[in-house]
From TrEMBL:
This is Caffeoyl-CoA O-methyltransferase. It comes from Citrus unshiu (Satsuma mandarin). Belongs to the class I-like SAM-binding methyltransferase superfamily. Cation-dependent O-methyltransferase family. InterPro entries: Cation-dep_OMT, SAM-dependent_MTases_sf, SAM_O-MeTrfase. GO terms for molecular function: O-methyltransferase activity; S-adenosylmethionine-dependent methyltransferase activity. It comes from the Eukaryota. It holds the Pfam family Methyltransf_3. The lineage of its organism: Eukaryota, Viridiplantae, Streptophyta, Embryophyta, Tracheophyta.
Length: 237
């Protein structure tokens, strides 16, 4: 099972050389990856949509970001089997809180036994729902504004900007939002004719998001070619 998980992870990168990506994983990522995260990669490996899981090298950077901002209260939009969720739960303090939102509890429950085994399930409030309605409900209470330290989004691409607008109100100044899949399999740099049919819809949404984030004066950002591309947004006002 471990080999299946490694194979799935290795194909996530956008580096031209699979050998170079394998070197990064085996030298710097896998040796420091907590055992419970390895386990959740293993249980996800046989899932037909295993490629949706967070790339472990991207996860390593996310763990560092969580520590740098001393994150305690976080929000996650899009959970899948819970790799990034478990990573966050392992990283934040014992009394930290994660609001995790996904429309599919079934996939979350694939990784839930591992999360419970790790002893961090008490930090997670899983909500089976469309995310926009949950965010809008949070914003009805002004006390929630500026109360979150960190957000991770790996969900429906057409709503990324809608999520961003709401997260800019929910995150504190100095908080971080991370958006996954912002290079969309490399298609953002392809001509329309080169894009595979199954990636066309997400490509346009990703192009629109990337332009909007680049123009957003509320954030400082870094577009990082890890996994399928992640964009890190630091709220500066």
């Amino acid at each position: 099972m471990a080999e299946k998980a490694k194979k799935a992870a290795s194909s996530k990168g956008l580096l031209q050389s699979e050998e170079l990506y394998r070197y990064i994983l085996e030298t710097s990522v896998y040796p420091r990856e907590p055992e419970h995260l390895k386990e959740i990669r293993d249980v996800t490996a046989d899932h037909p949509r295993a490629m949706m899981s967070t790339a472990p090298d991207a996860g390593q950077l996310m763990a560092m970001l969580l520590k740098l901002v001393n994150a305690k209260k976080t929000i996650e939009i899009g959970v899948f089997t819970g790799y990034s969720l478990l990573l966050t739960a392992l990283t934040i303090p014992e009394d930290g809180q994660i609001m995790a939102i996904d429309v599919n509890r079934e996939t979350y429950e694939i990784g839930l036994p591992v999360i419970k085994k790790a002893g961090v399930d008490h930090k997670i409030n899983f909500i089976e729902s469309e995310a926009l309605s949950v965010l809008d409900q949070l914003l009805k209470d002004s006390e929630n504004e500026g109360s979150f330290d960190y957000a991770f989004v790996d969900a429906d691409k057409v709503n990324y900007w809608n999520y961003h607008e709401r997260l800019m109100k929910l995150l504190k100044v100095g908080g971080i939002a991370v958006y996954d899949n912002t290079l969309w399999g490399g298609t953002v740099a392809m001509s329309e004719e080169q894009v595979p049919d199954h990636l066309r819809g997400g490509r346009q949404a990703t192009l629109d998001l990337n332009r909007s984030l680049a123009d957003d004066p509320r954030i400082q950002l870094s577009h990082v070619p890890l996994g399928d591309g992640i964009t890190i947004c630091w709220r500066i006002f």
